Amino acid sequence: MRTYPIPFNEEARIRAVYAVPGLQEANTAVFDAICEATRRLLDCPIAHISVVEEDTQWYKSVVGIELERMPKNNSFCTHTIMSGAPMVIPDLSKDPRFETHPMVAEGGPGARFYAGVPLVLSSGQRFGSLCGLDLVPHDAPSEKQMAILEDLGKAVVAALENVPPKPVEQSEDQSIQSTFITLVGHELRTPLTILMGSMQLLQKTMTKGINNSLITSAAKSAKHLKGLVEKVIEFSDVSTGELRLNEQSCDLKSLLEDAASMVLPGQEGQLKTISCDPDAFLAPVLIDADQIKIALNALALNAINHGGTEITVGSRLDTAGNLEITITDNGKLDESVELNALYQPFVVGGDLDHRDAKGGLGLGLPLTRKLVELHGGEFEVRTDAASTCAIIRLPAWRLKAVEVPAAHLMETAPAAAASLP
């Protein structure tokens, strides 16, 4: 698996990176001076200004070591750009996110301390970070040190953008809002689809008595819609197309049972239910439960509308210890469905004319992929002659993180006793 999360607005972020006139690999003295100030401020042997592109990370300036362009799998700054807040890791080897990271694990350079701030363009997009690194753990920097580091980061951006005393008005990237509203709008309609389908069937069966399962499903969908609207408002930024995670410990059992509680008729009018795998792996996991529920609901609805008659939700560990949450049905994908298209940005799985094919891929799947990648995970669909399985694969550290108190990740360590030239 990859070792980094992918921003929800990655396509728009990349466009913003390429649009900065001063963001070229040729360096100037001002950026070296800022890096020198950074390593003195943090008492680190290494400091750099990183630029995170689509697949790689390169450096506008590096002091204390020679670094070439590297794959994002070797980058810490891919995590720093996920929010507007600084990222400080006193000991990378004690953080579940990084203990197996190529730059931290045995055989690598043995990075231990990291402190960085995201570099934010005037458009609001984050393109990289200003950070300090060491091969030994450090105490966490003081608030004053981090405030100065943030100011140095703003100086980097100002030098790149050549910002005048009165910043010019920034034009909006219209495709950002269009993409964001389209995808989230689809998920706003999904619960309503469940609600209306359930109610319509209830109207036809009123003479036979009230179907409690359908009423429960309808009520759940209404509650889901209300909560989703609140989360979109609280954790999203339409101006940049960004969506942030609200990560908390979540019980897998309740997550699976919530997905399995969905009951509604498929396109043929046949009432379909979802069962939980009795052998499912159950443990607490650190996720944004609301966003993963959105993804699971989209997959469950897709299976109900386009899949077979038997639908199962489950969870398991892969050979590397990563968590896989699965929705499996006994339906077969239509030959017109292009699985490879699922992994392209905002592309429905194949021709729109075939999206209602048996076992087909719906509009919710590109959004599911982006929500999973936002968690640092991967989304995959496997199919054979007898079944279709949608897999949400989350990195192993999300299981370990709930076992490690937050305070432990920030515990103090002995002062640096060694340094690089």
From TrEMBL:
The keyword 4Fe-4S does not apply. Its EC number is 2.7.13.3. Keywords: Kinase, Transferase. CDD domains: HisKA. It is an enzyme of class 2 (transferase). InterPro entries: GAF, GAF-like_dom_sf, HATPase_C_sf, HATPase_dom, His_kinase_dom, HisK_dim/P_dom, HisK_dim/P_sf. Residues 183-398 form the Histidine kinase domain. It catalyses: ATP + protein L-histidine = ADP + protein N-phospho-L-histidine. This is histidine kinase. The lineage of its organism: Bacteria, Pseudomonadati, Pseudomonadota, Alphaproteobacteria, Rhodobacterales.
